[in-house]
Write a structure and sequence with these properties.
about 45% helix; globular; alpha/beta
Length: about 190
Amino acid sequence: MLKDLSAVELMSSFNGFVSEGCGVVLNKRQLEAAGAILESVCRGEGSSFRLNFSHADQQALSTHLLAYLLRMYNQSEHSLLVIHPDPGKQVGAMDQLVECLWANIFTRSCLTRVGDDFVIGSCRARFYHAAEALLPVVSAPHLLVLVDQSRDIPAEVLDAQVSRLTTGGNSTRVLCGVSVAGNDLMQREPD
């Protein structure tokens, strides 16, 4: 069971999923971040992380994390929430996830798409954009809330949406983006 694995074992399992599944090699910094994020998800710790990498490294890591968690939690009704600053960026991220899931030998045969959701078994990744006035409430427990390009989302908007979506759970939160002066959202989260 995933929750019984150490952070090093989780990182190794994730690294094998990515490298053997689709031939991608992630760098040490990406793998270390993945290990910490996966440990929080698997133990239900509800930790917050900020990926302060290059945009390409953030995209690669977040896409492979989503694919890995979809596959590893496919027998349980959990959801992964992905929030983007606008619909155009959301579509690009969805396209990246589709490419990743189809490229990976461990996920390509079991992927289903339902609207803006990607489903493997009973686990689903749900994509939303922060501009939506009220994001729908989802009944399944959220393992992960991934916020892409979070510097473009006002802190109060994100806090309101995330607290509404994760009430009663210990969702791990990952903010992707580069800290910009005056953006308290990115500056308040640890690297």
